[in-house]
Amino acid sequence: MTTDTGNSMTKSPFGKLLSKGEIALIIGVIGIFVVLIIPIPPFLLDLFITANISVTLLLLLVTLHAKGPLDLSTFPSILLFLTLFRLSLNVASTRQILLQGYGGEVIAAFGDFVVGGNVVIGMVVFLIIIVIQFIVITKGATRISEVAARFTLDAMPGKQMSIDADLNAGLITEEQARKRRELISKEAEFHGAMDGASKFVSGDAIAGIVIVLINIVGGIIMGMRQGMPVSEALQHYTILTVGDGLVSQIPSFIIATASAVIITKTSSSENLGKDMSGQMFSQPNAVAFAAGILAVFCIIPGLPKLPFMSFAIFFGILFILLRKSGKKMAIEETMEKDVKKNMQEPHSEEGVEKLLHIDRMGIEVGYKLVPLVDPHKNGGILERINALRRHMARDMGMIVPPIRVRDNLQLGANQYVIKIRGQDIAKGEIMPDCYLAIDSGVTTKTVEGVKTFDPAYGLPALWVTGLVKEEAEASGYTIVDPVSVMITHLTEIIKNHAYEILCREDVQKLIENLKKESPAVVEELSPSVMPLGSVQEVLKNLLKEQVPIRDMATILETIADYVSTTKDTEIITEYVRQRLSRTICQRYQNGDGKIGIVSLDPQLEQTIANSIHKTERGNLLALEPNMAQKLIDKLVEVVKGSLSSGYEVVLLTSSNVRSHIRHLIENALPQVPVLSYKEISSGVKIDSLGIVKL
pTM for this structure? Predict the structure, then answer.
């Protein structure tokens, strides 16, 4: 039905006329310049002046009925064209008055009837209109437009983040998010345009004063040239000039008022008249006080009683009506609230449960980093996070949950915090307008910058500006942009804490995905054979040592092979690691295919094996504390001495003690992987870098 109505309106003559608005605008602009240059007869001048007053009056009424500034988003352009049209009429009327001594019937009527043919009254009225327009309305509207433009632009990043947060939370659809972004963009454009367009109104007021003065002086000169006495010339031309000033300044006053209204108008579901009446009479007690004060004025000697008494009675009656209406509305609102409360009662628990939700992963940023998370920015943080999730799926075989990005005004301007399950895991600080120059160890000279450390690896670095970037690259520094710094830090946090992120829902998804390709493996490992929680523990043990879980078929097959002999997830993890030996070795091989290893003295390894005791909770290492500390200190010494070899140092042990030694040194040497001899696949060469002896 709506489409048919729209089509019929388009086919109607009026609809066709509206569709030719572009042609009408071109003709109108050309007409403005024609009126400015070519003399026009008085009857056409009367027609144009009447059109000017009519259009400005229409614009004011449309402005009063608008529900928000964007309902009249073309206002700045309309303001420009009406100002040009009015000034061109000023020039045309001035030309007509000075040449013919007559400016048409409209100007004559304003000069004779409105001000009674009195020059002094005309000038006073004209100057009062100018003062009100220029000092009160125009100046206030200009200030409001400047502030509105600034605050609208400053609020844009926060509004964008709010939209993205609602979209990520599923509160709005993609289409709704797009419309809200367009609305924010239009608001910024409107207030920016109004900030400049308001200068037209103030310039128009100044031009009106100058034009009147020029016309009076020019009129006196023209009258004297035609043989008029000075007094007669002054009377005749000043009346015409004042009439001309009034017919131009009254529309100017109207459009200045419309400009102030549209700028001060806030978005609302009602027009300005309804909002004002509703808010002005929202407090009946204030109306009662007004009635009482006016009644007191009636008994003061010397003041006229009838006007004050009339308005005191009016406000008294209004108070009684408002009070009755207020009581009725209060009863209706109470009933409506009760109905809503009863309707929402079943969902109240659900609302509370939502407050308990914690994001598995999140990033909070300071206000200066908000532009980096703009979803429309190519190469921004959100785009890179999506790429990171795909990379982790390919590299580690795990599903990284959605990472929520929020702003946090309590953080420093350039700070960010990485969270896992609502807890702060790591913090960093980046300078969005600079680059991080990391000291690679082979730098030729020091460049100018702010000293810092790489948040991901703790390497010494500098924040350098774009001007110093090329010099830093030439000096041997590794240059990284701010977004890459944060993403690299996030990547390392995910790798180091992957075992904390993995949940049973993720494990279930991985198993369901494998079921499409290897249904037999999944069916063999039923929950009755090994619970989902035990499979999760095995996967977490692998991820804790950054072993990829991408080969789920091999992992589940190994679990199925050994689950009948043991339920200890630590032992099953060792069997899985041995089956994944190729994958593990590839991560630590150098370009020549070799692995640099540090091993334990056989006697020391035997001592450690003898210290392992079986308990109800599994095998535990009960090593004497002093010996354990000596072992760690010696291992740190040997590893540090092996770093210059160019290998990623690996500690190689027997399979029966591997997991226990890993637990022993994980705090002192978290970056040193521990492998067993059975995890070295055939064909892999090893290079011994040292032996740990006590």
Answer: 0.50
